[in-house]
């Protein structure tokens, strides 16, 4: 059975809800998920990560994700990690989905491997962001299971 860490960045609950839906779907595909609402690197034992985050401020990470991002910034080699990012943002901001984009960039700089390009969900377009994420999920799940 595959095992992964779901890392949530959310202030008002939308990204958290999407992450919970993804976790439920992944579990039904026999992929065991540890869901982190207050992510801490020391609790992420699996090398496979799914980051689900919204964006705040001028392209900032949600507050609950900031300590985790600081922990990542302090790492020198994250080549053992493979990951994907789902971003939930609002395209009326110039900094559309910047937390997702910058999170992906940071992990790649540290040597981690992106399994798929970041999925960017626009709350202006998508009435139900979880539906878009669930449509994307099978591709991610196949990669995780196959490797
Ligand atoms: C104060 C504020 C600032 C925001 N800044 C951005 C931003 O810079 N870029 C973006 O893509 N979305 C931005 N958003 C939109 C949120 O990311 C979006 O509403 C998201 O669904 C919130 O998710 P959450 O409920 O998980 O926190 C902002 C929303 C608020 C309320």
Automatic annotation (TrEMBL):
Under the heading Pfam families, the entry gives: Flavodoxin_1
Needed co-factor(s): FMN
Q: Per UniProt, what is one GO molecular function of this protein? A: flavin adenine dinucleotide binding
Please name the Gene3D superfamilies in this protein's record: 3.40.50.360
Keyword terms of this UniProt record: Electron transport, Flavoprotein, FMN, Transport
Chain ranges of the Flavodoxin-like domain:
4-141
Would you say which domain of life the source belongs to? Bacteria
Supply the SUPFAM superfamilies for this chain: Flavoproteins
Question: Under the cellular component aspect of Gene Ontology, which terms does the record hold?
Answer: cytosol
Q: By its UniProt entry, which InterPro entries does this protein fall under? A: Flavdoxin-like, Flavodoxin/NO_synth, Flavoprotein-like_sf
Keyword check for Flavoprotein, yes or no. Answer: yes
PANTHER family according to UniProt:
NADPH OXIDOREDUCTASE A (PTHR19384:SF128), NITRIC OXIDE SYNTHASE-RELATED (PTHR19384)
This protein is called what?
A: Flavodoxin-like domain-containing protein
Organism encoding this protein: Pseudoalteromonas luteoviolacea NCIMB 1942
């Amino acid at each position: 059975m595959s095992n992964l860490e779901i890392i949530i960045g959310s202030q008002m609950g939308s990204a958290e809800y999407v992450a919970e839906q993804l976790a439920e779907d992944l579990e039904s595909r026999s992929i065991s998920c540890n869901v982190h609402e207050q992510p801490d690197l020391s609790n992420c034992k699996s090398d496979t990560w799914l980051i689900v985050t919204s964006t705040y401020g001028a392209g900032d990470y949600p507050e609950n994700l900031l300590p985790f991002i600081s922990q990542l910034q302090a790492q020198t080699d994250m080549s053992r990690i493979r990951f994907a990012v789902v971003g939930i943002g609002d395209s009326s901001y110039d900094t559309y989905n910047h937390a997702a984009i910058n999170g992906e960039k940071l992990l790649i700089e540290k040597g981690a491997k992106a399994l798929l390009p970041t999925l960017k969900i626009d709350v202006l377009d998508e009435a139900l962001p979880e539906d878009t994420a669930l449509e994307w999920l099978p591709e991610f799940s196949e990669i995780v299971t196959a490797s």
